[in-house]
């Protein structure tokens, strides 16, 4: 995961959790994909999530399940908060369902809306999962596995899983370019170098990229770098200038300018906010 503050809960359970707090700023996380299933439970506010080629507007009380390997990104409105649980499908008792999701035979349709009779109970299970993985009381591993099974049992009853469409060439393009950025974001990559990596004409690459990501390649790379920088800023011992260099910015002043444009804060002020929040 790329979100600020995302961390593995414990090595014995293939599960990670992330809890946001309401902020006066709009938020976002850059397009990415991973093999784990991700659950988003909206606590306050609203957000726009794009999962592969589908866009969902979700609000307080809604639940979004993101299947493995789906390219997803989001933008959140001010004062939005949500819980996120990301876990390996090996946790599921139903191995057939796990296999079909991981192999792409099944995917997820629409979100579970707050108006659905099962939504409130699901939000509660996700909240209890996050809390258990934070407190780590005796037996918490069994608790989170059980709660995730309850969530998926309810999702099956809600019939949100559906047959997948064959992956399009554009979906494959998105996954390949994300993997390229993850591998090379510390370098001085450009649309030309990315296009060459994919054996595409630069002009065609730029049009295809903007069509699928809604921004230029350079904006996407900067957004990814800023998300990485936000994580590094949690380490008080690392200087801001070192973080700028380690995330691929060759100019400290440009790093600060881009960071403030994305977050509304300077890197130093963002670090101070993180420390106060912690």
The percentage of residues in β strands lies in 15-25%
Strand order of the largest sheet: 1-2-9-4-7
Please report the first level of CATH classification, the CATH class of the largest domain: Mainly Beta
By CATH, the superfamily of the largest domain comes out as: Regulatory protein AraC
Could you outline the blueprint of secondary structure elements for this entry?
Layout: E1 7-10, E2 13-19, E3 27-32, E4 37-44, E5 46-51, E6 54-59, E7 63-66, E8 72-76, E9 81-87, H1 95-102, E10 106-108, H2 119-135, H3 140-157, E11 161-163, H4 169-184, H5 191-197, H6 202-213, H7 217-232, H8 240-246, H9 252-263, H10 267-277
Antiparallel strand pairs: 1-2, 2-9, 3-8, 4-7, 4-9, 5-6, 5-8, 10-11
Structure explained in plain terms:
The strands form three sheets. This protein has a five-stranded antiparallel β-sheet, covered by helices on one side. It has two domains: 7-163, Jelly Rolls; 169-277, Arc Repressor Mutant, subunit A (Orthogonal Bundle). The two termini are 20 Å apart. The protein is globular, with a radius of gyration of 19 Å. It has ten helices and eleven strands. Helices cover 45% and strands 21% of the residues. It is an alpha+beta fold and 278 residues long. A hairpin with a 2-residue loop joins strand 1 and strand 2 (13-19).
């Amino acid at each position: 995961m790329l979100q600020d503050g995302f961390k593995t809960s414990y090595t014995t359970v293939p599960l990670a959790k992330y809890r946001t707090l309401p902020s006066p700023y709009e938020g976002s996380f850059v397009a990415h994909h991973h093999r784990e299933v991700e659950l988003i439970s909206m606590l306050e506010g609203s957000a726009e999530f794009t999962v592969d080629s589908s866009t969902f507007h979700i609000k307080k009380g809604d639940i979004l399940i993101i299947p493995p390997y789906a390219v997803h990104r989001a933008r959140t409105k001010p004062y939005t908060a949500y819980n996120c649980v990301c876990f390996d499908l090996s946790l599921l008792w139903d191995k057939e369902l796990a296999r079909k999701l991981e192999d792409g035979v099944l995917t997820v349709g629409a979100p579970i809306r707050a108006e659905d009779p099962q939504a409130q109970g699901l939000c509660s299970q996700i909240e209890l999962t996050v809390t258990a993985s934070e407190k780590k009381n005796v037996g918490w591993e069994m608790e989170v596995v059980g709660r995730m099974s309850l969530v998926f049992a309810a999702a099956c009853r809600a019939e949100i899983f559906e047959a997948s469409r064959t992956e399009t060439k554009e979906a494959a393009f998105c996954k390949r370019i994300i993997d390229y950025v993850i591998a090379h974001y510390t370098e001085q990559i450009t649309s030309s170098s990315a296009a060459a990596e994919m054996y595409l004409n630069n002009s065609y690459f730029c049009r295809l990229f903007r069509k699928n990501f809604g921004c230029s390649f350079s904006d996407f790379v900067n957004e990814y770098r800023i998300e990485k920088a936000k994580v590094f800023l949690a380490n008080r011992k690392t200087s801001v200038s070192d973080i700028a260099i380690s995330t691929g910015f060759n100019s400290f002043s440009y790093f600060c300018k881009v960071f403030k444009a994305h977050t509304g804060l300077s890197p130093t002020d963002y670090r101070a906010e993180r420390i106060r929040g912690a």
